Amino acid sequence: MRPSARTPIIPRTFRKGVATAVDNAYDNPERAARQLGNTREVAKTHYIDVPETVPDNRAVLEAWARGPGSKT
Q1: Are residues 49 and 2 in contact, defined by beta-carbon separation less than 8 angstroms?
Q2: What is the pTM for the complete model shown?
Q3: Which is nearest to 35 in space by CA: 50, 23, 51?
Q4: pLDDT reported for residue 42
């Protein structure tokens, strides 16, 4: 998580950034929690940023953008 230019930088911002970076690098929330000195549950609930993921709909959206009857 990177704050915008208008977001105030507070200690929690750094903690979230550190936890998220460690978890993303190692896919290990326990490692991120230990870095922060927290339990795994606290790190996952309050500090590790989990991006929202969606299914890959590119083919459907590209076909829709081309319009009906388009072959390519």
Answers
A1: no
A2: 0.63
A3: 23
A4: 97
27 Cβ neighbours under 8 A, 6+ residues apart: none
End-to-end, the C-alpha distance of the chain in Å comes to: 38
Quote the pLDDT of residue 53: 86
Helix 11-26 and helix 29-36: axis angle, to 10°?
A: 150
CB neighbour list of residue 44: distance below 8 Å, 6 or more residues apart: 29, 33, 50
CA angle 32, 34, 37 (to 5 degrees): 115
CA pseudo-torsion sign 8, 11, 16, 21: positive
C-alpha R_g of the chain: 19
